[in-house]
Design brief:
The structure is a homodimer.
Chain A: E1 4-10, H1 14-25, H2 27-34, E2 37-44, E3 61-62, H3 65-70, E4 76-79, H4 85-96, E5 101-103, H5 106-123, E6 127-128, H6 140-146, E7 152-158, H7 161-173, H8 177-187, H9 195-198, H10 201-214, E8 225-226, H11 234-242, E9 245-256, E10 259-270, E11 282-289, E12 293-300, H12 304-323, E13 338-339, E14 346-355, H13 361-371, E15 376-382, E16 389-394, E17 397-398, H14 399-411, E18 415-424
Parallel strand pairs in A: 1-2, 1-4, 2-3, 4-5, 5-6, 8-10, 10-13, 10-18
Antiparallel strand pairs in A: 7-9, 7-11, 9-10, 11-12, 14-16, 14-17, 14-18, 15-16
Helix pairs in contact in A: 1-12, 4-5, 5-10, 7-8, 13-14
């Protein structure tokens, strides 16, 4: 066995170091599997003076990432820089040069995935990104390959570990959002600027990637309806629990009447659902397919070694394809589905109102719902005097109708404040 | 696109009909993905006179399966006959002829998998069997490909839907084994002769297949230590529940000190473990890997359409490889691990004893455990007079020591009967 696949690594933070570690530790095994030794020949880093304690000679490090992509002694590019601009330029250049790319860059793939996939197809090389969604959990390959002969109808995922950690602590300790977020930041489970996580941006990127593959269509991150968990209160969680639900930040992608709907928002999920038991910072993806039925994939969504494991899995595939000159399979976007606007969503809603505690209030609230063709499934009032609260769960209603109903409630003299509005996914899923 | 891959189907029961249905329904989509139309040209059945209501012309059916394998107009063989003798002969012949094989035959793969894989490698063609383990759940491909660069340390699976259904009903209704089995048979969830399921034979076959792939070694079905659920009583389940456990029939494959241990038996599993929530006839496979950490795969373990979905996923892979003349990846058994005998297993045990209700009994029982270097973690006595029962949970002990301890207990005058002995998997997994 004389063959060597020479790897150019772009970025060498936690994930890049994980990749180098695994490639070194499993070198003989990987050579046996791929038919070639996998050797990291160049590594682009911002600061070449740091000793990273990795089993690589000092001369492989450079601060010029484009030189790595273009180097004659690089056959395969692994991109773990992250972000869109520089990473996008480098990935496009590699594909143009006919060099396959393995990336963990969810932001890049979520925004430009279909275009990059097309560039890869044109270049006759692979673009692999298992690590971009849900870390170590194999979900891209099952969607792209195992379920390729089936018809996926819905994918529901817990796609962000930070928010799942926060919601788990809130649920299990009755704690307030702000307190748990501070604690998570102190422990390093949440970033100093947590917007990307708690605002649902990270989950929306992953939902776009999943929806594109699941429905063979083109969904960009900007197409995903998105709400974060910042407004979820201890009261919401307590009400949910009393009704038999947990609140999870879900990414939901579904195909309805030949349209695709993709959304990320905090959701009332029945406690008996397999996703409801996914605690702490774990991720999970639940898939419904016509023939396969219900499937779930569960694991670590982040971390240097889990993400490194997913990258090395991709590197093996890509290296084999390179040796056999047989790239693919390429993702397919041939079905080009129309995106369903969020206003046309049909689901159930939980509405929490601060109301005046006086006769006729319930009647007026009920009339307002009826006027907007939103039917009430459950209602009860709590507290009295200054703290009267009305909890309502609706039957399935159109999001557009619910929104105008909420506007009318806010304008109503009987309602002091619409405190919470959250979507409820019961047994009838849409 | 003129290319056609011609499929010979061996067997056309529920699963075979599922395959034909999916191939027909998704024909255009499959052609777009593979680059060739997938056409079923020959089908071997026992009785060619039955109208199966499938979208196939009558002349494709024959009662000569070898003629299908050898036919000039068959490029790829799908085997869903089941059993070892005939199926084995047909699969070997196909591989010898350089025709790739997709099979759902767990029994065949569990007994002859490594040898058949070698025949496939020699023939330069693929042998794919995703459908042989856990139906629609992609587990073979993740182990063989996604985790190929990682090091799997343990795989734990709920691999048989019938026994999981029975244990779920026993747990949730407090019902007796025999009653639930009769009910399951009446509902068609259990076979008239349930031995293969309740005796753990089916799960042991799947555990052997999983262990071979997870540890790159050769494990045959006969190498798997096996106990069924026939002896699990309502009392065992109730005691387990009180202690925070559920009883599941688990297949457990682990690598310890360069040896591989594979076993199937009813197990006390902590209620908080992700596998504990897998109810009814669902299957799930839990994987621990060095870099990836914990992963779980969940879904339907059986049924015509779920199994058909897994087969078609394999057919797509194999068809692509056939078109590109690039078979593989082949499973690797290059690590050839020694099998650890069950006597060397170290785990915790639950022991239920019928004892005489008189002074000195507990002391004698405790001394017997101590004499065999089995340390007791928890003990209590229930009932009195004729019905006194002693419940014991041990610390981790060697299986060989526990067995001689149980023999001594049975010979002891203080013990009327050793009612139950079950293994307990707590937080410290081995």
């Amino acid at each position: 066995m004389d063959r060597v696949i020479r790897i150019g690594l772009l970025g060498c933070g936690t994930v890049g170091a994980g990749v180098v570690t695994i490639l070194d530790r499993e070198a003989d095994d990987l050579a046996a599997r791929t038919g070639a030794r996998l050797q990291v020949t160049r590594v682009a880093v911002r600061d070449t003076t740091i000793d990273r304690g990795l089993p690589l000679p000092a001369e492989v490090f450079t601060d010029d990432p484009m030189a790595v992509v273009e180097a004659d002694d690089v056959d395969l590019v692994v991109e773990v820089i992250g972000g869109r601009d520089l990473a996008g330029t480098l990935v496009r250049r590699a594909l143009e040069l006919g060099k396959p790319v393995v990336t963990a860059n969810k932001e890049l793939i979520a925004h430009e995935g279909p275009e990059l996939a097309e560039a890869a197809r044109a270049g006759g090389v692979d673009l692999a990104y298992e690590a971009a969604v849900a870390g170590a959990i194999p979900i891209i390959k099952p969607l792209k390959e195992s379920l390729a002969g089936d018809r996926v109808t819905r994918v529901v995922g817990i796609l962000n570990g930070t928010t799942n950690y926060i919601l788990t602590r809130m649920t299990e300790e009755g704690a307030a959002y702000a307190d748990v977020l501070s604690e998570a930041q102190a422990l390093g489970f949440a970033e100093a600027d947590p917007t990307s996580d708690v605002g649902g941006h990270d989950a929306a990127s992953k939902a776009a990637i999943i929806a594109s593959l699941a429905f063979d269509t083109t969904v960009h991150a900007a197409d995903v309806f998105r709400e974060g968990i910042e407004q979820v209160s201890a009261t919401d969680i307590e009400v949910a629990s009393r009704l038999g639900y947990v609140i999870k930040l879900l990414g939901i992608a579904s195909e309805i009447d030949d349209e695709v709907a993709v959304r990320v928002h905090p959701t009332f999920l029945p406690k008996a659902h397999p996703l409801a038991g996914v605690r702490e910072s774990f991720n999970a993806v639940y898939v419904e397919a016509e023939a396969a039925g219900e499937l779930m994939f569960y694991g670590r969504g982040a971390g240097g070694m889990p993400t490194g494991s997913a990258i090395v899995g991709d590197v093996i595939d890509v290296a084999r394809n390179l040796l056999q000159q047989a790239p693919g399979p390429f993702p397919s976007s041939h079905r080009r589905k129309r995106l369903r606007p969020i206003e046309d969503l049909q689901t159930q809603y939980y509405v929490l109102l601060d109301v005046e505690d006086e006769p006729g209030v319930l009647a007026e609230v009920a009339r307002t719902f009826g006027d907007h063709t939103v039917s009430i499934a459950q209602v009860w009032q709590e507290g009295s005097g200054d703290t009267a609260q009305l909890v309502l769960i609706t039957h399935r209603a159109r999001e557009g109708d619910l929104r105008t109903c909420v506007d009318a409630l806010e304008a109503s003299s009987a309602v002091r404040k619409v405190t919470s509005v959250l979507r409820v996914e019961s047994e009838v899923w849409e």
